[in-house]
């Protein structure tokens, strides 16, 4: 049985499995997705690369700190794998926590990345993670828009994490409390 992390209105966020390799390749092997991921994620050229990457992610999820990991995003209605979401420590001291999400291009423009991100962030805050960062290359307007839809605030640019200039967005638990309806 696959371990389910959480459900949102339209999605199930669950652990990756060995059976996901081919479907994951249709996300991470696509040039329009992969171009934004390096150097944080190794380039996925074929099914063997995807299998190795999923094995690494599954191990990191099992062995990592509570609340951190890499998960598959599936549609609740039929189980179709449409992407992935992760919450992991950033390099350089591993003090900061990054959220990342990738959606297959065939499923863009439906708000799935934002919905998955919101669920994972709220879960993180329930596990005493105080703030979450999202990093985006300056030309990745889609990722930046999703970060803003999540309520994240742009805090500047940096190259300290992956030796490439990235825009940094942040959301603190207190930001959600302030925005919560009364």
Describe, in plain words, how this protein is organized in 3D:
With 182 residues, the protein is α+β, with helices and mostly antiparallel strands. It has one domain: Aminopeptidase, CATH 3.40.630.30. Helices cover 33% and strands 28% of the residues. The chain has 6 helices and 8 strands, in the order ββαααβββαβαββα. The strands form 2 sheets. A 5-stranded antiparallel beta sheet has the order 1-2-3-4-5, sandwiched between helices. It has a 3-stranded antiparallel beta sheet with strand order 6-8-7. A hairpin with a 7-residue loop joins strand 4 (81-89) and strand 5. Helix 1 (21-28) packs across helix 3. The N and C termini lie far apart (39 Å). The mean pLDDT is 90.
Number of domains: 1
Strand order of the largest sheet: 1-2-3-4-5
Helix content: 25-40%
Order of helices and strands: EEHHHEEEHEHEEH
* Main pleated sheet: 5 strands, antiparallel
Taken as a percent bin, the fraction of beta residues is 25-35%
Please report the distance between the alpha carbons of the first and last residues.
39 Å
CATH superfamily: Gcn5-related N-acetyltransferase (GNAT)
Please identify, by name, the CATH architecture.
3-Layer(aba) Sandwich
Secondary-structure-derived class: alpha+beta
The average pLDDT is 90
Question: Gist?
Answer:
The chain is an alpha+beta fold and 182 residues long. Helices cover 33% and strands 28% of the residues.
Protein topology:
Elements: E1 4-7, E2 11-15, H1 21-28, H2 31-34, H3 47-63, E3 69-75, E4 81-89, E5 97-103, H4 112-126, E6 131-136, H5 141-149, E7 153-158, E8 166-172, H6 173-179
Antiparallel strand pairs: 1-2, 2-3, 3-4, 4-5, 6-8, 7-8
Helix pairs in contact: 1-3
